[in-house]
Amino acid sequence: MKKTLVLGACGQIGTELVLTLRQKYGEEAIIAADLKEECPLIIKNGPYIQLDALDKQQVRSYIIENNVKEVYLLAALLSATAEKNPDFAWKLNMEGLFTILDLAKEKYVDKIFWPSSIAVFGPTTPMDKTPQHTIMEPTTVYGISKQAGERWCEYYSLKFGVDVRSIRYPGLISYKSLPGGGTTDYAVDIFYKAKEQVKFNCFLKEDTALPMMFMDDAIRATIELMEAPIENVKIKSSYNLAGISFTPADLAKAIQKEMPNFQIEYNPDFRQAIADSWPNSIDDSMSTQHWGWQPKFDLDGMVREMLTNL
Ligand code: NAD
Ligand code: AKB
What we know:
globular; binds 2-amino-3-ketobutyric acid; six-stranded parallel beta sheet; 2 domains; alpha/beta; Rossmann fold; binds nicotinamide-adenine-dinucleotide; 11 helices; UDP-galactose 4-epimerase, domain 1; about 40% helix; three-stranded parallel beta sheet
């Protein structure tokens, strides 16, 4: 049986990706792996292994011995956490990628998914409808690692024929798993406070617009890109992907439509500078043209799903 490994499977994206991949390809075909000893209850329905993405030998042996042919590499430090530990963020975000790219170069692995982020853009990037190809001068360690990762993915693809596919995810909003230390995490935390009927203390200013997406759309995009015929995947670095763009004030208003007593206050912290360096909205027309991407969730639809399911 062809095996797929999701490395970093216990996080916000991995949990939902593992569930969806198992529904599609069977529980035994999808191996969840993470640094954590125990995997979340929700993904206990299939194989799990404790694996350190930084342990090159362990990762290589596991993949080769278990006939793993596809790898989703999700282990990383996100923007806010990375700023607190830049050296380690650079190490984790880069070294794991080289281990997997080299396994594909040596033909052990057939296909890789590696996520990039809107963090590859910086303050000199056009902020509205940011194009696929534009100025990219990121000012965060996270953004620098994602930009470097994109360059290496393209390099391995062009020089060695490695099939590596990537999306520049916007901030992701989900109810099945918690976010792991990003600047866009406020857009998940806000729903927990709304449900608890507690005033939300937002760490971004009310008018900070950022590109965001409901997790269902992100998982569908990931699998659609991975299933696209290779000739359609023309961009070998990473694809822009857009869902919904909104400010904390827009999101609060949308929640108030469903919960009129919901309250918010704004106390920006160090994450404001990170958010200010990122785009307001993204032009993802190349994803639409090349592999047919279409988002389904708008702001009100996402808010209803979150409030119903949390
Ligand atoms: P997360 O922090 O929620 O999850 C990361 C997982 O990786 C965690 O379960 C953690 O235990 C695991 N991990 C950390 N170090 C590891 C190691 N050495 N070995 C094995 N596992 C390890 O992150 P996420 O939100 O699920 O993001 C996954 C990927 O998607 C990251 O590359 C991130 O940069 C990217 N991304 C996420 C978002 C988002 O909004 N969630 C947006 C853009 C890009
Ligand atoms: C973060 O805020 O760090 C992530 C991202 C947009 O990459 N959610």
